[in-house]
Design goal:
The complex is a heterodimer of chains A (about 280) and B (about 325). With about 280 residues, chain A is mainly α. Chain A has helices spanning about 1-10, 10-30, 30-35, 65-100, 105-120, 120-135, 135-165, 165-175, 180-185, 190-215, 225-235, 240-270. In chain A, helix 1 (about 1-10) crosses helix 12, helix 2 (about 10-30) packs across helix 12 and helix 7 (about 135-165) packs antiparallel against helix 10 (about 190-215). Helix content of chain B is about 80%, strand content about 0%. Chain B has a two-stranded antiparallel ribbon. At the A-B interface, helix 5, helix 6, helix 10, helix 11 and helix 12 of A face helix 1, helix 6, helix 7, helix 11 and helix 12 of B.
Chain lengths: ~280, ~325
């Protein structure tokens, strides 16, 4: 663990990313203290510019506080990003592990399915899923995970393929371990590092997809999110640039920080892959 | 066998490989349609205002909606094969006609984006690799990181704020100034001016990515043995770069461009709805609000097919660039 941190620390921008993410999480966790009211509430004079009428970052056309929206929206983005990624990683591991471990016909069928999901343009598919399931926080999570898992499946399959004939796995077979136990307790722990790396990068992508969906009006109508704020402010672009600008900056900073951390994890967990980029 | 007939066979084989994927997507489409609340008859009845249950049952029988699911699936498959994608009640037009109408603006946007991103990406990557320079390198890396983290719709809106509202260089939305009734070259110019911001918005990220890839790929190729051979033969650096290295360095960039067509189509939905560009993405955005599922599914199907076709084209370009890659 110490060793890991020492390697991680060497990448300055990754440490910076970690600090930023920590601040965003802190902001999300204290949202109800910082702005102890519903971010949809009319908080004052509409279209106040930043710094006036008691609005740090201005207000939108309905008098909603942009800063409050950003703080509360952080919860939504982080939560959806994290949960959708966990679900996608779970599906990906399931497909990848079965395909890689059993090979043959099972591999063939599972990889064909993966291929279909990789061919489908993912953002349009996500739109379609949310539109059909009705916009809610659940349908957004489902849509994002359905379009994100194929990458994990391919990665896990590759790892399982290369590990399943190693000596330690053969030893497990000789000991009479069940397939399930070998997969979960022996092979999977050995391919955790690439899964963690790809997972961390997927959180960033998931946040971007979520913001895109809610920008198009497909977010949960009862939950404040950054994409929704930008979508609601776009008609006011001429008179109130701040409504769209600041939530976008929030997305940019958060996603950038997560990507930096992902790269840092990659360097720290897979030292041999460092040369790849 | 001659090379051209080999390529022909290869294309045919790849087309056949695409069929199961399209079939699977059509089936997914069908199930999504069934998953949705209400069917076409509910929509029709809703449009008409009032309908008796008997009349609705009659309509269902007429459309075959009372049949068991497998039968309905076969009918749906048959319709798709005949390019009949259903009817858009909102637009009062067959979906396929609507889609064809709106296809060209999207194609224009996509092609100009690909040309800008791939063309400039290759050029900038080439420059960066030829004049190894740390600060330029750092700029490209930072640019790539930032564009990778920026939501597309936000870039578009910021472009509008800066270049349309403040500087007044480009129009904020639409594809042409319809009220001006331009003809001939004036119209082309008008469309081109409208095209600038959407194209830049959509291509920024890819531009950064291809520049980075092209640079890495050029540097990798410079280290290969054949470059040493070429130098030993006494070829000029210029010839080595442009005839030998460039051609090999292009391969990964072309592959990547093919892989990303799907993402590009998704991006065009966002960009088109930001700039009110009247293409398929905008149509998808409109159909969301109108809850016009037939239309949305049709667009989805077409864009999936487009991805398959583009991947095929990329494979062909690939085999032309690198004769070593077996086409058969």
């Amino acid at each position: 663990m110490r060793d890991f941190w020492n390697r991680y620390k060497r990448n300055r921008s990754a440490v910076f990313g970690l600090v930023v993410i920590f601040l965003v999480i802190l902001m999300a966790a204290t949202a109800d203290l910082l702005y102890a009211f519903d971010p949809f509430r009319l908080a004052g004079k509409p279209l106040s510019s930043p710094g006036t009428n008691g609005f740090l970052l201005g207000s939108d056309s309905l008098g909603r506080d942009v800063a409050a929206g950003i703080v509360h929206g952080a919860k939504t983005s982080l939560l959806i990003g994290l949960v959708a990624t966990l679900v996608a990683v779970f599906i990906g591991i399931l497909f990848g592990a079965l395909a890689g471990y059993y090979g043959g016909q099972i591999d063939n069928i599972l990889m064909r399915v993966t291929e279909v999901f990789q061919t489908i343009p993912s953002f349009i598919f996500a739109i379609l899923l949310v539109a059909i399931l009705k916009p809610s926080i659940y349908s957004v999570v489902i849509a994002i995970s359905v379009v994100s898992w194929p990458g994990v499946a391919r990665l896990v399959r590759g790892e399982f393929l290369s590990l399943k004939n190693r000596e330690f796995v053969q030893a497990c077979h000789t000991l009479g371990m069940s397939d399930l136990r070998i997969m979960l307790r022996e092979i999977l722990p050995n391919c955790l590092s690439p899964i963690i790396v790809i997972g961390s990068l997927m959180i960033a992508t998931a946040i971007l997809i979520e913001s895109g969906l809610s920008f198009l009006g497909l977010g949960d109508p009862n939950i404040m999110s950054w994409g929704f704020q930008i979508g609601a402010g776009r008609t006011m672009l001429r008179s109130a640039w701040w409504v769209c600008t600041f939530p976008g900056v929030a997305i940019l900073i958060t996603v950038l920080a997560i990507n930096l951390v992902g790269e840092g994890l990659n360097d720290a967990l897979n030292p041999r892959l460092r040369e790849r980029n | 066998m001659t090379r051209s007939s080999k390529i022909f066979k290869f294309v045919l084989k790849r087309l056949l490989q695409g069929i199961p994927i399209i079939l699977a997507i059509v089936i997914i489409n069908f199930f999504l349609l069934n998953l949705a609340d209400g069917d076409a008859v509910d929509v029709l009845a809703g449009e008409a205002g009032s309908a008796t249950p008997e009349y609705m049952a009659e309509l269902r029988a007429k459309f075959g909606l009372d049949q068991p699911l497998p039968v309905q699936l076969m009918v749906y498959l048959k319709n798709v094969v005949m390019l009949d994608l259903g009817y858009s009640f909102r637009h009062d037009m067959p979906v396929s006609e609507l889609i064809v109408d709106r296809f060209w603006p999207t194609a224009l946007l996509m092609v100009s984006t690909i040309i800008l991103a791939v063309g400039f990406g290759i050029l900038l990557g080439l420059l960066a690799a030829m004049r190894l320079n740390t600060w330029k390198d750092a700029v490209i890396t930072v640019f790539a990181l930032i564009t990778y983290a920026t939501p597309l719709f936000w870039v578009g809106l910021m472009m509008i704020v800066v270049f349309s509202l403040n500087l007044g260089w480009f129009p904020t939305s639409g594809m042409e100034n319809v009220a001006a009734f331009y003809e001939g070259w004036d119209r082309v110019k008008d469309i081109a001016v409208h095209l600038v911001l959407p194209t830049i918005t959509l291509s920024l990220f890819y531009l950064a990515l291809y520049t980075r890839m092209m640079r890495a790929s050029m540097l990798e190729q410079y280290g290969q043995d054949y470059v040493i051979t070429a130098r030993a033969k006494g070829l000029t650096e210029r010839r080595i770069t442009f005839v030998h290295v460039l051609r090999n360095a292009l391969l990964p960039v072309v592959t990547m461009a093919g892989v990303q067509v799907g993402a590009l189509i998704g991006g065009s939905v966002i960009v088109e709805s930001v700039f009110a560009w009247p293409g398929l993405g905008m149509l998808a955005f409109e159909s969301l609000f109108a809850r016009d599922l037939n239309l949305l599914l049709g667009i989805f199907l077409l864009s999936s097919a487009l991805v398959i076709v583009v991947n095929l084209i990329v494979d062909i370009i690939y085999s032309l660039l690198d004769p070593r890659i077996e086409v058969s």
